[in-house]
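User: Is it possible to get a 3D structure for a protein together with its bound compound? The compound here is guanosine-5'-triphosphate. I've pasted both below.
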Amino acid sequence: MGRVDELWVILTVVTLAAIAGLIFVVGLLRGRGGQTKQLPQERAQAPQAPERTPPKANTYKTSAKIDTGGGVGTIDRPSTPTAPPPAQPPVDESAPPAPSEPEVVEAPPTPALEKPESARGRMVRLRERLSRSNTALGKALLSLLAGGKLDDEAWEDVEDTLLQADLGVEATTEIVDSLKQRVQVAGVPDEDEVRGWLHEELLKQVNPTMDRRIAATRIDGRPAVVLVVGVNGTGKTTTVGKLARVLVAEDKDVVLGAADTFRAAAADQLETWGDRVGVATVRSDREGADPAAVAFDAVKGGAETEADVVLVDTAGRLHNKSNLMDELGKIKRVIEKQSPIDEVLLVLDATTGQNGMRQAEVFSQAVDVTGIVLTKLDGTAKGGIVVAVQRALGVPVKLVGLGEGPDDLAPFDPAAFVDAVLD
Ligand SMILES: Nc1nc2c(ncn2[C@@H]2O[C@H](COP(=O)(O)OP(=O)(O)OP(=O)(O)O)[C@@H](O)[C@H]2O)c(=O)[nH]1
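Assistant: Yes, that's possible. Here is the predicted structure of the complex:
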């Protein structure tokens, strides 16, 4: 082989070696680059992080807490259902893959705002319940008086019947005396005549001339303030909730104050009543918080939101009379630093009879009661308590509870009440 041929062989070998080395290096680089960069086509085929299921529209109500500035209460305003949240941003592809089973958070179903029944005519609707428990009184009186033989014994029976229905001694004596006079003049009556007399006598005792309106409209550019008091278990919180519904049905703007801080559940209970009809509740989240401070904040919140009326629920679980006086006195004084109190409603359980009467007297010494709410009249034959308590306190029964349903609170109507007793 000549020198030129040898040179060609060497050049060919070197060229081939250089090409092989280049191919090796390119191969290495490509192998690593596949892990750091993706080509568009490769990215399109790569497994995607599962898209998060967008939460459903927030259709349940939330309670936005607005600090009323008073330091204790927050006003829990039920918000109207909010707009759906904005669309999710594009998935960040460099993010680590999401878990394969994305968590789907189900929003609770929307509790639509309820439309409470109008207060007008409620007593007529509920009359049957009153009749069911109280017609015994009417029937007994009718059979005694129209029985034909009105001797002393018969009159004693009339008296006992009235007393058993909790009318009280004074009212009973007045009714019996008046009936005796009528018999003297008209002779022994027939049943229709007796019914007419009894209607007149009972109505007179129930006193239809008393003003039974509830202060629930703005006065001098501020909300009316209603304080609700009574022993625990009488139905106070329930009554505040039901009353809120009565007022909402009358298109009133209502604010609730949960000043029953003794029992944490009482504030929750009240808030639930409010939420159902879109009414805000001022409350403290702390059990045992100062009830006067919560009441103050509720009235302040009502003024700031230009409400028509603020209903303040209080605790009734008090150990003794002076304790009661102190607590209610303080609530009253603290509220009055910013607004007069327009109404103090005393809630009494009609089934407790004389015990209820004693409670009424104690409460009326602590605060100026302006109206009585008699609850559970559906469960007692002692409807006469209406008469007894009005006489004892000199204030009218303004509302009656006739069941556990949300709209089973009715403005007290004397004529409908007497009708129900005698039917
Ligand atoms: N049958 C009947 N039950 C009623 C009536 N009003 C209230 N209740 C029931 O009485 C019970 C007590 O009611 P609450 O409102 O919790 O009583 P409260 O006075 O606020 O009691 P505390 O919060 O413990 O002070 C509940 O089961 C009510 O449903 C009524 O008019 N008729």
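The longest strand covers residues 343-349. Strands lie at 63-67, 74-78, 224-229, 254-259, 280-283, 309-314, 343-349, 371-375, 397-401, 409-411.
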